[in-house]
Write a structure and sequence with these properties.
43% helix, 4-stranded mixed β-sheet, Rossmann fold, Alpha-Beta Plaits, 8 strands, 2 domains
């Protein structure tokens, strides 16, 4: 389908929903979906809802709030309690299922209490194929994915977001902080804070597409190949930031940042190529 056909299809889907609660993380897709829904349905028929949790980076929460205020998107923040679920905290490979079950359950309650007809998420056409147990939870809670249904890709969403003037149009992907922990390493507030503190420090150094992976006392840094050359330039400050966040040392993953790295161990796997960039031996 052409992009114009996809845009028309998205409008048709949203109008068919009538009134919607949008799962609104502050990321590219959910901000875009909320904005288009408000433009098509009017603010009285849209509510963007953000789940507040230790698993969500504070800067994402700030983005969600600020963009909603700037673009007239009705916004609500609700507390989610996935951290209290031992199945989630154990961090199995389907951890995301328990998190999203909690989130969509809460948003379903909001929709019913306030008289909204549908709950929507921001999944897009590029999300098909990866390991996504959260999608199972969405299906069980009757959550619709209009961007996916319309066939819109991430690049098309970014381009349309730019047309709409959304500041998130070129924002890097930002999944929950728990995705930085390898499966089997329990999810705790302290570990999530360590990851966030380290990533905030690296973002302040100008890095955009990267991840700080938590491996106990070791932080594994994945940097997009386009930014890898800057690691040596900031080596000492990166090491200091990692140690300040509570890690003993930092290792650079020579494969660099790539989508779906957390799930690589679920298949045959590859040997990690690492080099130490900070800390003690």
């Amino acid at each position: 389908m052409s992009t114009d056909v996809k845009r028309a299809r998205l409008a048709e889907i949203l109008r068919g929903c009538g009134s919607v609660v949008v799962g609104y993380s502050g990321g590219v897709d959910s901000v875009f979906l909320a904005k288009v829904a408000v433009d098509l349905l009017g603010p009285g028929r849209v509510l963007a809802v953000t789940g507040k949790s230790d698993s969500i980076a504070s800067w994402m929460e700030d983005t969600a709030r600020d963009v909603a205020a700037r673009f007239g998107i009705p916004w609500l923040e609700v507390e989610t309690r996935e951290m209290e679920d031992p199945r989630y905290a154990a961090n199995p490979s389907n951890r995301c299922y328990f998190c999203k079950s909690e989130l969509w359950g809460r948003l379903g309650e909001v929709a019913r209490e306030r008289g909204f007809a549908a709950v929507l998420d921001g999944s897009n056409a590029d999300d098909v194929g990866d390991h996504r147990p959260g999608a199972v939870a969405a299906g069980e809670n009757a959550v619709r994915s209009p961007l996916l249904e319309a066939g819109l890709t991430k690049d098309e969403i970014r381009a349309w977001s730019r047309e709409l003037g959304l500041p998130t149009w070129d924002q890097p992907a930002a999944p929950c902080l728990a995705s930085r922990l390898p499966y089997g390493l329990s999810v705790t507030p302290r570990r999530l804070r360590q990851v966030e503190e380290a990533e905030v420090a690296l973002r302040a150094l100008g890095f955009r597409d990267f991840r700080v992976r938590h491996h106990g006392e070791v932080a594994r840094l994945e940097v997009h190949p386009a930014e890898a050359g800057r690691v040596a330039e900031h080596r000492s400050r990166i090491g200091a930031a990692i140690r300040a966040a509570g890690f003993r040392r930092a290792l650079l993953d020579l494969q660099g940042y790539r989508r779906g790295a957390l799930n690589e161990g679920l298949g045959a796997g590859e040997v990690m190529q690492l080099v130490q960039i900070g800390g003690t031996a």
